Reverse transcriptase zinc-binding domain-containing protein (Centaurea solstitialis), 459 residues
Amino acid sequence: MSYLSLLGGLGIGALQTINTSLLIKWWWRLKVEDQALWAKVIKAIHGVNGKDATSIANPKRPGIWLNIAKAGKSLLSLSLNIDDLFTRIVKNGNNTLFWHDRWVGSIPLKSIFPDLFELESNKFCTIASRAMRNDNGSLSWVWSWSNVGEASSFSSQVTALENLIQHVNLDDDEDTWRWEGDPSGSFSVNSFRSIIDLLSIPSNSNRRFWNKWLPPRVNCFIWRLFLNRIPTRSNLSSRGVTLSSTTCPLCHGEEEKEDHLFYACPMVKIVWNWFLEWVGITEGVHTTLDQLIHNILEAANSKKRKRFLEAAVGSLLWFVWKARNNVVFNGRQFSTHMIANEIQATLFTWVKYGSKCIPLGWSLWCCNPAILFYRRRRRRPTSGSRQPTFGPSAHLGALSFPPAANCCEPSPFYKRHRSSLRAAQRRGSSPAILTSVTVVIVLTSRHHRTTGVLPPPRN
């Protein structure tokens, strides 16, 4: 929820991330406002005036500024060195440290030439102290080495250093800083927060979604699933809960982990195979749940279709989890038929009332739900004819869709397991099927099978 909306979150912002960004802003201000009175006081107290740019505080001096300095060290856990985002723009070279600041290349010169840095007599020298302007206007470099090592190796490194900085030119303006985290070159809390989010977001972020067509409880479940926070037997065991067994309650073959329960379990694979056929997606190459969901969402050719596929995947994961709980706590059998029926019936209600798509009849929904995403085309009725309708909706106008989908026959899966669906209705185990709208849909489908035509609309 705290991640940016671009990364699949709600963009609320984590307090720790925002607090760290605000602390790092003081790093930026210390650099760009180095002549301000407060900056001079900080440098005098901590003894860092003219020292390494990474040393902004003395660890022996307690206070607020020491906490600001520790904010940069806390980012090392994300493999982020804050100094890599500060780049010196050299003008006159009076305020740029030759070896420590990033002013040529992507890393400081002390990291490129560590041997020369060890031989440097003044390790905190500036560029201006090492550059000398000739009569013709060109620059030559004046070095001060403490102890020259092997002649051949030393001279070759000095030559490589001079070749790297030969295009540097100095003028009369003051040196400035550039923030690499934003195209404008100026530091902002929002830009740094985006960097932290990109580094801290989990690797499975491509399947992180919050679908507005799904109920909040289903969205929360999927969110917890992707964070590995649902109470599977493996998770409970790792938290010290004593269990008689940690194997999967569906297949009793492997340990019940998220990836096994929702993907690798043979019983669940049957549901996935039916699901891919139902939504019209060819099964690609995948070895994990993350790859499977990624392949499904990549098949979307529109925003609404992607949202539908997200909702469909979410409903499948939700009903698999409910069926698993019925097996564990109620002693019921795991029925792939019932899961498929619940997905079709409940998802129909969720999509109908949660989206702005054109609601279709139950038969078309079971045949090909992708019809939802074909463009609606209104036709003016001619005299003596009536507009065709689909399911319980009587005044929606005509739809245009490919001839292969122009059918009102229920899917073969629905035909084979109609008795299971009706038994579920009698038992009351699927409340979503017992809504008045779904009952009308079932009656409409039954009328079509007996008469061959759709019933006329009711005013």
